[in-house]
Amino acid sequence: MNERMTYDLVVVGGGPAGMAAALKARECGVENIALIERASELGGILEQCIHTGFGLTYFGQELSGPEYADRFIKLVDKTDIRVFTDTMVTDVSPEKVVTCVNKKDGLMKLQAKAVILAMGCRERPRGALNIVGTRPAGVMTAGTAQKYVNLDGYMPGKKVVILGSGDIGLIMARRMTLEGAEVKMVCELMPFSGGLTRNIVQCLNDFDIPLKLSTTVVKVYGDQRVTGVDIARVDEKLQPIPETIEHVECDTLMLSVGLIPENELTVGAGIPLDRVTRGAVVDELRQTEMPGVFACGNVLQVHDLVDFVTMESQIAGEGAARYIRGELSDPEYIRPETGFGVRYIVPQKINIKDKKDVKLYFRVGAIYNNPRVVLECDGQVLSSKKKIKVAPGEMEDVLIPASVFDSLTPESRITVRVEV
Prior knowledge:
By secondary structure, the protein is an alpha/beta fold. It is built from seven helices and 31 strands. It has three domains: 1-123 and 258-328, FAD/NAD(P)-binding domain; 125-257, FAD/NAD(P)-binding domain, CATH 3.50.50; 330-420, Immunoglobulin-like. It has helices spanning 16-27, 65-77, 142-152, 167-178, 197-204, 264-268, 306-324, and strands at residues 5-12, 33-36, 52-54, 63-64, 82-84, 88-92, 97-102, 106-117, 121-123, 132-133, 139-141, 159-163, 182-188, 211-213, 215-222, 226-233, 246-249, 252-255, 259-261, 293-295, 333-334, 337-338, 342-346, 350-351, 358-364, 368-369, 372-377, 380-386, 389-390, 396-400, 414-419. Strands 1, 2, 5, 6, 7, 8 and 20 form a seven-stranded mixed beta sheet that branches. The model has no long low-confidence stretch (mean pLDDT 94).
């Protein structure tokens, strides 16, 4: 085992979140930074996302995933940030000791003044769905299929049914069609899609691929290979309606049924998680309940745009720099509350002593047409913004101006709600 190494900041995860956080911390004056990535190169999941649509918000340009990642990789290369690739982190202790291992250096213990968690998320597998039937080849997550096609050059199948209308599933419906496969349909358990509106239009409508809402897969058929699936409509309790069962012949079932933040390290460190986001509970600087440990990107909350991942991670990078400089002592927190229609809010707490603009990010629990997003403080409406539509698949935000914090106390109540 190598001797313990000391860093001002250790960032766990070298995807878009980790790179943006490390770069922002370096920009803020943190000099001794380690960036750890378990893959053989930086970039994270973006390396297999060869479609365009990245960077429109952050760069004002339409980029592919690898192009977006490459911009940050080049920026990291220009700094003195120590990059560890092919390195797996096994533990983050409350004392901010990061234990990791790789083939070259063996087992390492990195002592940090601050840690940023940016491990990303993973797809929910078939085992979490309890689908009846056999276990033949041809059942896979949409992300796995994306890797097969875009990185490995393999076609997962020729006749495809996709369960779940998350963005990866929608994008793979288009990708498989362009590669010559027949995408029979996309089934969605909920009465609304979980993906971005633009992906529904560009990936399904433009290719005449049916989207069957309130529909799920109830059985898989096949011995060595999938031969078909049974689909069924569901009732208001999301239970299959037996008389609506329909058999669909296919050789591939792709699952796009949600993403789960990779928070095993977070839990191991004893950091509390939000029961809705399944990410850490954080303040406006993305500091967790453990002082000096920050979280950002999809490990904190599942984002719909990588541009938002970048901007959130820069907040964490700046927050870590401020913690290292000793600027975050003696906070006084209030906790924003979810009102009608709002499932969760990030950050979950705000230091009212900081007196800076704070943007609250949230998702709604259903589709609302022509609503207002209302921000209230102690019963007073601070803002009421008219929207054409809000949907669970698209993240929303609302700004609390810095001036509001002048009159707040720890007993104050801030609420975000939907008004229809």
